[in-house]
């Protein structure tokens, strides 16, 4: 997944040290779930499926009120950081302090702005209202406000939900395979398919070929968080690699879209055109620096939260990826993690976790429930999550990941390097060629496409 952001060193084919396979390591088993979508639906209280336009719209108001209060606070109090109101030891520090205050505003504004992004996302899933018109109008307006081609992305995102973690059907966060990274073919004398036994020389080869240096991982993550989202929209970076080069969300003829969806793509393009024109006009009226501080930096934080959250929801060495022969809709939905955004067990972690969950409408914390039924509105998703988790626990299935933090993203990007070219259920291997899980099929013959939930 990260290969699109950095070049790779060519792998050497000759061994440089001990070629004997290491002793097989004990790796936790992953029992491939056979639960059906009907069983999962049955666990969810009926009222969780109810959608209210007025209740949903109250969160739009909430997000804009938060943004308005933050902007008013910034415009009112940041200019007062001057010698007349504040005493600082050096004159140059006033400019530094004002700059730091604006950066704090940008960070804080990015959270409710991302909350608006989530509202548009719910409109695309028809979780905002029972009215298709209301979903389309509110979704287009809100997503255009944060630079998202609403209908175009709605279409590709729907395909992602239908085939989550399907190796040839998913639309985003599709893992790189061994061959795609130019690594040597699987050598059964020096390693095994499961990734529990790898010779020392292969571990060294993988580590060098995959640039397993901490600074490289930090740079990969930084680029990923800053520009990963627009690059995905523009050229399908991190997307389904079966699509032609430069597949994007702006041209109706792209393989992402069917012919009858042409007008939806053009309407999305119109929203982006108005968005860009509004930014340029604002720069002409207010100046670049003010627009950069007030809108563009919070916009970058919105993109950052989007990539951080979705990357960690769908990427982890403990999450499976399925070949078509093993894929079912429930397996795809359960191949994601719920994570507490910027949370943790400490007192500070609980506070930051609550703030982030509130301002981003729990999208990170209730993600599995959202994949099981995307029409559940976020204000019911918490209860649905608890009910689903209770049912999953009966089958020994747990979908809670570590808190979604920058350090966790760095861990994941270092542990998730490639998957094998073969196998019905595949897990990421790290820079030593080792996997964190071994798939086990318990009861064959279960098939559930999820079509009944469309």
TrEMBL record:
InterPro entries: FA_desaturase_dom, Fatty_acid_desaturase. GO terms for molecular function: oxidoreductase activity. It comes from the Eukaryota. Residues 1-24 are annotated as: Disordered. Residues 101-397 form the Fatty acid desaturase domain. This is Fatty acid desaturase domain-containing protein. The chain crosses the membrane at residues 59-79, 99-120, 132-151, 215-234, 270-289. The lineage of its organism: Eukaryota, Fungi, Dikarya, Basidiomycota, Agaricomycotina. Residues 15-24 have a biased composition (Basic and acidic residues). Signal peptide: none annotated. It comes from Tulasnella calospora MUT 4182. Pfam families: FA_desaturase. One of its GO terms (biological process) is lipid metabolic process. Keywords: Membrane, Transmembrane, Transmembrane helix.
């Amino acid at each position: 997944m990260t290969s699109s952001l950095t070049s790779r060193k060519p792998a050497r084919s000759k061994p440089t040290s001990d070629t004997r396979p290491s002793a097989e390591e004990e790796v936790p088993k992953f029992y491939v779930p056979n639960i059906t979508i009907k069983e999962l639906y049955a666990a969810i209280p009926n009222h969780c499926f109810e959608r209210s336009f007025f209740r949903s719209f109250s969160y739009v108001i909430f997000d804009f009120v938060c943004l308005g209060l933050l902007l008013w606070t910034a415009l009112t109090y940041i200019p007062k950081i001057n010698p007349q109101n504040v005493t600082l030891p050096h004159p140059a520090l006033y400019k530094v302090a004002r700059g730091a205050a604006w950066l704090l505003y940008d960070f804080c504004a990015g959270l409710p702005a991302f909350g608006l992004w989530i509202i548009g996302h719910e409109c695309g899933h028809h979780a905002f209202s029972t009215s298709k018109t209301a979903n389309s109008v509110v979704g287009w307006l809100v997503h255009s406000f944060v630079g998202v081609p609403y209908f175009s992305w709605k279409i590709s995102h729907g395909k992602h939900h239908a085939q989550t973690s399907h190796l040839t059907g998913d639309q985003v966060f599709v893992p790189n395979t061994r061959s795609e990274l130019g690594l040597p073919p699987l050598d059964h004398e020096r390693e095994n398919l499961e990734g529990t036994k790898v010779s020392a020389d292969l571990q060294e080869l993988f580590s060098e070929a995959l640039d397993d240096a901490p600074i490289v991982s930090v740079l990969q993550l930084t680029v990923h968080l800053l520009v990963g989202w627009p690059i995905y929209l523009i050229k399908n970076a991190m997307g389904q690699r079966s699509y032609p080069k430069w597949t994007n969300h702006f041209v109706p003829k792209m393989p992402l879209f069917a012919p009858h969806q042409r007008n939806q793509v053009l309407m999305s393009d119109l929203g982006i055109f108005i968005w860009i024109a509004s930014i340029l006009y604002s720069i002409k009226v207010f100046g670049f620096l003010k627009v950069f501080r007030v809108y563009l930096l919070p916009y970058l934080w919105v993109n950052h939260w989007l990539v951080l959250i979705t990357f960690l929801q769908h990427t982890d060495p403990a999450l499976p990826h399925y070949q078509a022969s093993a894929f079912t809709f429930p397996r795809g939905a359960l191949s994601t993690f719920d994570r507490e955004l910027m949370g943790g067990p400490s007192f500070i972690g609980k506070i930051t976790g609550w703030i982030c969950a509130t301002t981003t409408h729990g999208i990170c914390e209730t993600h599995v429930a959202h994949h099981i039924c995307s029409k559940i509105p976020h204000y019911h998703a918490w209860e649905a999550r608890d009910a689903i988790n209770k049912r999953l626990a009966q089958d020994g299935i747990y979908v809670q990941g570590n808190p979604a933090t920058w350090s966790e993203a760095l861990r994941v990007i270092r542990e998730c390097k490639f998957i094998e070219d073969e196998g019905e259920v595949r897990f990421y291997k790290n820079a030593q060629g080792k996997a964190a899980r071994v798939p086990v099929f318990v009861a064959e013959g279960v098939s559930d496409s999820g079509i009944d939930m469309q």
